[in-house]
Write a structure and sequence with these properties.
411 residues; FAD/NAD(P)-binding domain; binds flavin-adenine dinucleotide; alpha/beta
Length: 411
């Protein structure tokens, strides 16, 4: 081993929420690890992104680093009201007395991803897990005995196991020869964050609002969701909209004024446009069962139903669990099987989650004449039949079911 080669029993590529969870989950199981991250420590992580965090995700984080799940709950908020409009008319409005349930971890919490990541960084610091910044993984060479990794800072790493949590453009995925396949959403979505310092758990009027064919957005679908410190505004483009023009500051200020009111136009904090990919790697492990993919390195989902980070966290936890058992295994076959089981479970879960997010996307894109008609009939009936309004309220987020496989999270 040369002097600039470092050895670790397990390494993680990527300091996104999934990579940080993986490192904490390895540490919790007594496995010494470190994170290799491409970006510098003072990077900007823009946008609210994963605001909807399931209770199950918080429980995993609490289990692997006591205090972490509760910190997200303390900083987040639970909106009590679900409201839906259809072409300017209210079709559903329900406020829950106890929206989070009765336990100390609520059913969900809403806070910007950057805050979640800051808590994870603090947890890594407390656990003494190092992040090597500006150390992008460039090559991954696996063998039956372990993995050699080269990083952009000129270092070489030897490890027994590598978790690839390096996001959608994953180098680790490419290096093990895994390939993404799947589809892309037909139309773009514009997503913006609007700052509002008054929004916290005690703010009056905390509601999640979906508006079908909103007149204020020239007939486009609009979703408005509160999180601690602001609102997320999500506008579904028409097929012939130019996403770049739609996401320009000038156009978005007009949308914000018309949808939220004049006082919010100066509070636009972040705007982005997306065509959502629904793709999955053809394998989550390398041929030697030494490299494991997790989170967006393994699958990309449309965000309706909030299955992205909420499935990446169980990927990471289960990858860490498989590695901990494999490292202690007395036979190679047992170690091999543990990693294979991880892949089998999480590939099936991803398939299921992509299907669920796909149903939400299909419903929203609304080309199917039966779906279009069902929405119109439900809106007509909503005044007399609450179930019709409830269906309209629920459908944009896809089915609620979890993958039919035991997992440490919901998804
Ligand atoms: C608009 C929007 C809304 C969303 N809403 C939700 C939601 O409500 N709930 C939810 O659960 N999910 C949501 N998501 C999804 C969520 O944001 C992602 O699932 C999550 O960020 C994925 O985390 P990750 O760690 O896998 O990848 P990333 O966050 O992309 O992190 C990957 C990390 O790897 C690093 N990296 C890249 N290449 C290398 C390399 N070669 N070597 C080392 N490091 C590397 C990157 O710099 C980055 O730090 C949303 C996403 C979007 C875009």
């Amino acid at each position: 081993m040369s002097s600039d080669t470092t050895e670790k029993p397990a390494l993680v590529a990527g300091a996104g929420p999934v990579g940080m969870t993986a490192a904490l989950a390895l540490h919790a199981r007594g496995v010494d690890t470190a994170i290799l991250e491409a970006e510098p420590e003072d990077r900007d992580r823009d946008g609210s992104r994963a605001i909807y965090i399931h209770g199950a995700t918080c429980r995993i984080l609490e289990r692997i680093h006591p205090g972490l799940g509760k910190a997200l709950v303390d900083d987040g908020l639970v909106w009590p009201t679900r409201r839906t409009m259809f072409r300017g008319k209210e079709v559903f409005n329900r406020t829950y007395d106890s929206p989070g349930g009765s336990g100390d971890i609520p059913h969900f919490t809403s806070l910007p991803q950057v805050v979640t990541e800051q808590h994870m960084l603090d947890a890594l610091d407390e656990a003494g897990i190092e992040i090597h910044w500006e150390a992008a993984v460039e090559t991954v060479d696996s063998s039956p005995d372990g993995v050699t990794v080269e990083t952009s800072d000129g270092r070489t790493w030897e490890t027994e196991y590598l978790i690839g949590a390096d996001g959608g453009g994953s180098t680790v995925r490419k290096e093990i020869g895994a390939e993404f396949s799947g589809e892309q959403s037909e139309n773009a979505f514009i997503i913006a964050d609007i700052r509002d310092d008054q929004v916290d758990e005690d703010f009056e009027g905390l509601e999640r609002l979906f508006h079908y064919d909103a007149p204020e957005a020239d007939g486009r679908n609009v979703l408005l969701v509160p999180f601690t410190g602001g609102w997320r505004l999500d506008i579904q483009c028409y097929d012939d909209d130019d996403p770049e023009e739609m996401a320009s500051e000038e156009t978005m200020r007009e949308f914000v004024r018309d949808i939220m009111g004049e006082e919010y136009t100066d509070k636009l904090e972040w705007i982005s446009s997306y065509f959502f990919l629904q793709v999955q790697a053809d394998t989550f492990v390398d041929e030697h069962r030494r490299v494991l993919l997790a989170g967006e390195a393994a699958h990309l989902l449309a965000p309706f139903g909030a299955r992205g980070m909420n499935s990446g966290v169980p990927d990471a936890d289960e990858a860490a669990s498989a590695i901990a058992v494999a490292l202690d295994a007395r036979t190679e076959a047992v170690a091999h099987d543990e990693v294979e089981l991880f892949a089998a479970r999480r590939e099936k879960a991803a398939e299921f989650n992509i299907g669920a997010a796909g149903q939400a996307l299909e419903y929203l894109q609304g080309e199917d004449p039966v779906t279009v008609l069902r929405k119109e009939v439900a809106a007509e009936l909503a005044d007399s039949f609450e179930a019709a309004g409830e269906w309209l309220d629920d459908a944009p987020y896809g089915p609620h079911e979890a993958p039919p496989i035991v997992s440490s999270g919901n998804y």
